[in-house]
Amino acid sequence: MKGNYVGRSEIRIDAQSKVTGEARYPGDFNMVGQLHMKVLFARRPHARVLSVDTRQALQLPGCVAIFTAEDVPVNEYGLQYPDQPVLCGPGGPKAGTDVVRFVGDNVAVVVAESETVASAARDLIKVEYEDLPLLTEPLAALADGARHLHPPYPGIDIHPELVFEGNIASRHRIRRGDVDSVWEQAAAIVESEYEIPGQEHVFLQPEAGLSYIDAAGRVTVVTSSQWAHEDQQQIAHALDLPIEKIRVIYPAIGGAFGGKEDMSVQIVLALATYKLQRPVKLVWTREESLIGHHKRHRAWAHARWAVDAGGQLLAAETKVIADAGAYVYTTNKVLGNLVLTVNGPYKIPHVKTDVLGVYTNNIPGGAFRGFGAPQGNFIAESQMNKLAEALGMDPVEIRLRNIVQAGDPMPWGKPLPDDARGLADTLIAVAESLGWEEDAAGWQAPQINPRPGDPAYLQRGVGLALGVKNVGFSFGYQENAWAGIELQGETEIEAASVYAASSDVGQGTRTVIRQMAAEALGLPLEKVTVAPTDTAITGSSGSCSASRMTFMIGNAIQGAATKALQRWQAGARPVKVEFTYLAPQTTQIDTETGYGDPNFSYGYVTIGAELLVDTELGRLSFPKLVCANDVGQAINPRLLAGQIEGGVIQGLGWATTEELVQKEGELLTNTLSTYLIPTTADIPAEVEVIIIENPEPNGPWGARGMGEMPFIPVAAAIQHALRAATGLWYNKFPFTLERVLRGLKGEL
């Protein structure tokens, strides 16, 4: 529903500051008298720390302090479970904190008068290690007799999927019907093995921060992350301080994509300032960032799906093993989304799904745009495209025969919470854009290979894939968001200030907040300002993740605006109100059957790809990628189109160039010259954006979350197009020119 400001492409409120360089990111902040910090990373994947000798380092002129494990009051943290030490080493009361489990574990932090001295002192620290056996492959970690990488942990009721059985960190499953009863009835069965890669976030600014004691005596951390109040809570826990003694401020973020959802520099900065009562600054290098923070989960899958002669799905049996890495991070929640997406948005009467998250000595797996859905989607959409081919049926046609309609139960036993029109709408929009046509026999794919004038070595193909993902936190968590509004004036409202702890990681959240507040208050846009994210002045609006921020904070703003206007009309001057929006309640899914009502909203998307394959070099190029996204209501169409374009290109990178290589626990692609993200030379000639608006019943002005959706089906769509061009199914990616060429030579 468009309004005066909702549905309008207003200019970003931070546009000028960013293009002129005035915007300040965490690495830009300095204070008089500040100290500088450097981190001693373990740089070995598995070892017991026997001793940490800091004596020589402390004698270096300008070295102020060195902190080790015994200096951390509560030496643990973790967004889902506190299984990671802040600093690894002897001297702590908790079992297992003397062991480093991946190369990015922190062993000590050095604080000095300059960054140069801090680096030199770090190099003088002598650490005695006892190297321990490595487990870098999940299957080896699952083997009988494999060494357990963690001590036994007790489970917790709010996360029943965290089982902590040996090296199994998490387990999810779905059981519906009886898959073994229908295989003989099938007209076609597709059985495949898939290997799905990890991915690095490559946000523009690596992790950075400045900590100091504010005027109220609070330990204050200026940093870039995705959930200020969660940072505040974890810092307080590790320092064993009341939460009100900790303050977290977010300036400009510099990108995140899920990579700043877990902790990095926050606790060690706060620790140093708390101990020394002085400002401390820390900026990770790019190489430190690459080894120090989590990645998208690698996964291996075996899938066996069946369909009848009419194209109706009969059964889906899928097993996925994901590399959780050294610590849980958000593995249980990522794989919770994977288990919900690995069967697609399709009517399947018989389902058997098992998903395991396994501890290894690799860099931890964690949050990344799509949060498990891209891995699940690649499996599901690959299977659908293969089943269509096995039946001689068009891939659009088979999807339209199987996608869920209003009221159809998903594999977890509940229907999607809206009518799911966006599934068919986005699919048809992309199909038509790529040249599909519908006739009396159904949908027919375009014939584009070859075209007149194409050289013999050039092959063309088109492909598509459909995607769905939840919006917001789920699985029984009471999703919520806080907003505050202050109105100033006498006879009329002269100014409105909006308060929300909404991390703007580059997508334009603060601009959208301003638009929604102006709309809800009925004020001109120029009268509305948005306060910075600062735990001292805001309640918790939740994480900037899960495609949730516009949906959640928009509802909170609507509630706060209604409350503020009521008080204004009653004569209050000034007006200051708070409102916490509570999303519809969800439930956990049953640990044995997978049944439940895990989400309150979903986003729908389809990606189409037209590609060219140079069969002599294996090189791919893309005349066109197209994305149709059901966004419910576009609050700011220009910003939304930018999110779609960015998501598509990021998905293109994961699918084609970004090969994350770890060997024996070491990250081999530890620079941006070896880990290759797309450049302008790799961008498709055309990225078509199709915005579809089917209002979300519970969304503000009908909006639904969409930030992750454009990424999700990209890899599967490219795989499908690659099949059309080469006649080969590439079940492992990225589709680098080396991998494509090996396939063309019969070496897959």
Largest sheet: 8 strands, mixed
Distance between the termini: 51 Å
- At CATH level 2, the architecture of the largest domain is 2-Layer Sandwich
CATH topology of the largest domain: Aldehyde Oxidoreductase, domain 4
Helical fraction equals 10-25%
CATH level-4 homologous superfamily of the largest domain? Aldehyde oxidase/xanthine dehydrogenase, molybdopterin binding domain
Question: Which secondary structure elements does this structure contain, and how are they paired or packed?
Answer:
Elements: H1 15-20, E1 35-41, E2 47-53, H2 55-58, E3 63-67, E4 99-100, E5 106-112, H3 115-124, E6 126-131, H4 138-142, E7 162-165, E8 168-176, E9 188-196, E10 208-213, E11 219-223, H5 228-239, E12 246-250, H6 266-276, E13 280-283, H7 286-292, E14 299-307, E15 313-325, H8 331-341, E16 350-359, H9 373-391, H10 395-402, H11 421-434, E17 437-439, E18 442-444, E19 458-470, E20 480-489, E21 493-499, H12 509-521, E22 528-530, E23 533-534, H13 549-569, E24 575-582, E25 602-614, E26 619-630, H14 637-656, E27 662-663, E28 666-667, E29 687-692, H15 714-726, H16 737-744
Parallel strand pairs: 1-13, 11-12, 15-16, 21-22, 26-29
Antiparallel strand pairs: 1-5, 2-4, 2-6, 3-5, 7-8, 8-16, 9-14, 10-11, 10-13, 12-23, 14-15, 17-18, 19-25, 20-21, 20-24, 25-26, 27-28
What does this structure look like?
The chain is of the alpha+beta class and 748 residues long. The protein contains 16 helices and 29 strands. The mean pLDDT is 97.
